Structures are given as C-alpha cells and as structure tokens.
Fold this protein.
Amino acid sequence: MVGSFLLRALSGSQGWTNYPAHAALEAMGCLAGIAIACFILILLRNLEIHRRYIWIAAGLTAMGTLDGVHALMEDGGSFVWTHSLANLFGGLLFAGVWLPARFAPPRRYAGWVVFSCFTLTGLVGVLTLHLGESLPPLLRGGVYTPIASLLNLTGGVGFIATAAYISLRSRSISPIERLVFSSHASLFGIASVMFEMAAPWDAAWWLWHGLRTAAYLVAFAYFIDLFQRQLRTLKTTEARLNHALDTIFETTQEGVLFVDHFGLVTSANPAACEMFGFGSEIPQGLSPARLLPNALSTASHLRPDTNLQAMRLDGSRFEVELSQTRLRAGGPFSSFITVRDITERKQAERQVLHLIEKLQSKTVALEQSNAELDTFAYVASHDLRAPLRTIQNAVHWLEEDLSPHFTEDTRDTMNIILRRTRRMEHLLEDLMLHSRIGRTEASKDVVVGTELVDNIRALAMRREGFGLTFDAGFDSIEVQKLPLLHVLLNLVDNAIKHNDAPTGTIALTAREGRDTIEFTVSDDGPGIAEKYQARIFEMFTTLHPRDEIEGSGMGLAIAKKYASVSGGTIEVFSQGRGCRFTVTWPKPKSLPQAMDKSA
C-alpha cells in the first residue's frame, strides 16, 4: 500500500499502456493458478492436507480461468468486469475454508468440483466477453464505480479471511506450506481491497498486477520444489525396492523364466538355471515349449491345468506347478513364468495315499475281526452256558430225587457245584459285555442329576445296615445316562459287597467343571492296599477268594473300559480304611456321537 501511494505521488497521472505485457502477466497468473490447483488436488488425494483446501483449489481455478479470459481483452467494459469477477469468485471460494468440515466436498469429488469451477467461470468469462459494452460500466472517467468497488472489496475480504484461517487454525499442513498459502491469500486480498486506489495503466496499477503475478509464481515455485523433492524420494524408494526385488529374484527357491515378445526365454533366475540345467548361460532361441512340453496352449500361454511336468535340457522330467504373469507393454518381456519343483511333495503325497490305502485295508480287516469276535463271543457264550444249565438242572434233579439220602458233605458239594456254575455263568455274561464295549453305539439319553440319583437308589445292591448319600452337586447337572449309570452302580455295589462291617455309608458327590463332571464314590470299608490299586482294574481280578465274596472279577475292568472309550477317567485312592473312586466324565456336549468302534 505504501508503494502505491509513493508511486502515485511520484508518477502522478502518467501511465504505461501495454496490452502485450498485461496479457503476459495475466496468462502467467492463469497457468500458475490452474497448476497450483492441480498440485492441491494431488495433496488431497494423498491425504496430506484437509479436504477444506478443495475450496482454495476451486478458487484458484476460477481466478485462473477468468484471468486467462481477461488476458485476451483490450480496454473496454468487459476488461474491468473479468478482473473484478476473478477477485470476487476467488475470494468467496477461498473463504469456504471457514465452513464446517461437513460442507467440504468428499475427496473423491475434488476433481469434479475443480472442473465444474473451470467450466462455469469459463462460461462467465465468455459471456462477459460477448456482452461487452451492454454490461453496467465499472469505470467512469478514470474512477471505479461503486459496483466495481463492491465486487473487489468483497473478494478482498474473502482472501484476507482465508489468510487468517490458514495462519491461525490450519494444522493439517507444514509451517512452510502455511506461510505460502497465507501469504498468497494475503497478497490477493490486499490487491483486491486496494484495487480502486490505482487508475488503469498507472504505476500503482502495474505494481499490484506484478505483486499478484509474483504471488502466483512464488506458490507455483514452492510446489515445483515440493514435487521435485518427492520425486527424489520416490526414486530413492524405487531404487531400494528394485534392490529388494533383485535380491528376492536371485535368492528365491522358485524358478522364474522371462519370455520376450518373440515367445523365447531370454532370462532366468539362478533357481531356474539350476532347475533346468542351463548352467551359466541360457541357450539361444530357447522356447518355453521345450522346457514345458504339453503345458502351453500357444507359444507362450499356459494351459488352465498348471500342475504338469517340466523337462530339463538333458531330457529328464520332474513335476512342477506353474503360474504365468502377463507384463505391461513397453518392456523387454511379455510375461514371466514361475516354476515350482514339486517332485518331493508329489512323492510324499503318493506315500501318504499308499499309507491311507494300507490303513483302509487294515480298518476293513479290523472290522471283519471285530465282527468275527462278536460272533465268537456270542457262540462261545451260548455254547458254554448250555452245559452249565445242564449241570445246574442235573443238580436240582439229584436234590429232588435223592435229597433224603444226602449227607451233610453231599449237600455242601451240591451247593459248591451250583455256586461255581452260577459264577461261571456271570463270568461269561461279563466277558461278553466287556468285549462289546466300544463297538456299540453310545446311548444319547440325557438325564438330570436327580433322575440319575433315583436310578442308582433303585438299582443298587440291598444290604441291611448300609445307606447311600448324595451331595447337592447332583441337583444342577445333566449327564448322558448310559454307560455312566453302569459305572457308578458298579462302584456302589463293590463298596457295599466288600465292606467287612455290619453297617456302612457310601457317599457320592458331583462337581461340575468346564467340559467334564467329576464324580466320587467313597466308602468306609477295609480299603485297598497301595500295591493292589493298579491291579484292581484288570480282568478277572479279585482281592478276596470267590468263595468268600461272590464275583467274576470283571466289574472294575468293565467300568474302566466304559470310562476310557467315553473320554473319561477312573482312579482310586485309599490309605488305611476307606476307599475313594474318582470318575471324570465328559459333559453331554463333549461326548462323542458314537464310541470308537476300533477300541
């Protein structure tokens, strides 16, 4: 402003009318403004500045477009109109940065916003040029009219407001960018506000044109430098990436064959050279079809089936997986083929398939063996029980016919025979049951804990002086009824049968875990010595003579097998008198749908 006053004071009313110089300044401003708008769009796309700066890009485009039209004009009504409208549109659009962020167009539409401003202001400029002297005059007798002052003052206020926003509130750009943008907007604002202080073509008029153009060029020079620095950074990054790709290319275990535009292999990585036996140089005129017979549908295009055989230069073959990548036109290669040697994998797959076939054949044989075992167990049980019943019937007939002639020794002998035959019969039944565990489908009936308690009370052995107790843990559980009921009944019956006292109590508890339920069966009987605790789960094992306590010796073996095939466990603990069996049983959701038939 001081410069304007000084120039007007020194030069007076003298002016320098030079349309070519004026057109050159306006044209530089036009090109610089549109270029800066494009730079801002790039920064917006890269998320380096806030999307509010779309308004500045739009303002620069509008000003640049009208300045370009203004550069084509000579003195007249349209001459001042285009300059004033450039200031008005530019200032108003610049001031859009003060709007809330929700009013800023999305980044993906930034290009369309700028293009729309270019189109609309271009139409306004052409319309102004066409109307010419029919427009209201903005200059009378060398003095600007109120309309001209209003247009330029409004635009100037918008520019100054934008400079204030960038200086005080913008934190999305660097300090140097803040300085460039704020200075740029400030110069535009001052030039617009002081517009009416200069007469056309006088020294002050040329000064503000020069400063306005300088503002364009300074911002343009800054963005050129910025993009040169980014270009250098990109080149450095590209060099590093190329080095990394070269390292990968040289060290990868997969072969890579590069095919030129004539369909010939002209380059390969070390892995491919070793894979195909190239040595240090690739043979001249080598076609991919020579290395990949039956793999190409044309001279250099792979078939859909990419799991094929490749051929080395010595004629030997190996199994490979192939993939082809087409390259963009312009380079020395049309595509590259990636080759993976899968010979070892295929051999391993064949070995696995062979093992699976052997396992399937053994499974079939095992199923046949199980079926034969079932048949044998049934036949053996049936054939062995028939003579036992004959013996039992014979003893009963002898008692009926010769009872008056029996002595005491004879009666004892007859009783021993009956007990032994019944024991043998029970043993056969238990043996049959044991052989079928794990080869029959598991029961899917689920019961609540209280129903399980009722079943145990109803089915447990009766002995005077003995009672059962159940803790509150049974009230909140759900279990698969069988074979758990059989296991718990077996433990309860054992505790009652082997107790050497006239009275006793068997206590059962249930404790729910995450995936299992833990049951305990405790008694106050004679206990089990530590050296026998592992043996009691074996078949045909009893700790007392069978003539003292009747039993087959199969009960705990059956319980153990039930627990094992159901995914549970059973353990015993005893020190001195008393014994505690702990059964861990899966919850219904954790139980298998069927017991493992190969157990």
Notes: Residues 19-231 form one domain.
